[in-house]
Amino acid sequence: MVLTDEMREILRYLHNKKDYAIFAGFAAFLHTKVESSADIDIFVKSIKGVNNISKDFINAGWKQKSKKTDNSLFMCSTLEKNNTTFDIIFSKSAKETILPNKVKLPFNSYGLYVINKEALFISKLLWLASENRPEEKIRRDKNVVNILRKNLNIKELRKILVKMKDTFWKKGYL
After folding, report:
1. Tens digits of residue pLDDT in 5-60
2. 87: domain range?
3. SS3 call for 82
4. Cα separations (Å) of 36 from 24, 45, 123, 137?
5. Is 132 within a domain?
6. Sign of the C-alpha dihedral computed for residues 56, 88, 69 and 164 taken in this order
7. How many distinct structural domains can be found in the chain?
8. Where are the beta strands (DSSP E) in the chain?
């Protein structure tokens, strides 16, 4: 996997934190070695966490591309620097269903918190069903799903599935 300098910057920052979990493409890479695009996405435990991390990166020269929130259940901050994006997301649903099951995985000299493979499997199935998903990402997601299904802990998968909120099933997000 080729890391941009900006991805290394994010990983150095996260290495010393505990209240987050990497998800999406980079999590898939950490679990399966299927290469991802030049971005990193994380869930955090609070809106305050989104704001604090965003502030740290903006102070380090990153630009905020967008920020969306309902001020209680959800916030997403998208930062960018040199064509690398960093999405920092708080979701009450993810806090309750995904973050408690995060795992710590080694990568280079870092110890990184990542959603577990069962949560990744569920999320990749959701993204495969998403409209307007680029073909390249669909191919990657299918590969990830096929790798993950061989090593799933079904008991862990069931625990996550029963906790999923209606927004996941009906609207396609945590």
Report:
1. 999 999 999 998 999 999 999 999 999 999 988 899 999 999 999 999 999 999 99
2. 5-116
3. coil
4. 9, 24, 15, 9
5. no
6. negative
7. 1
8. 20-23, 39-44, 63-69, 74-81, 84-91, 103-107, 110-114
- What are the tens digits of pLDDT across the range 76-108? 999 999 999 999 999 998 999 999 999 999 999
CA nearest to 121, candidates 96, 156, 93, 165? 156
CATH number for position 110: 3.30.460.40
Q: Is residue 168 part of a domain?
A: no
Counts of helices then strands in the chain (DSSP H, E): 8, 7
d(CA 49, CA 170): 27
Task: Output the six-digit token pair for 174.
Answer: 């945590």
The answer to the question of residue 78 being in a domain is yes
Q: Which tokens go with 151?
A: 């090593």
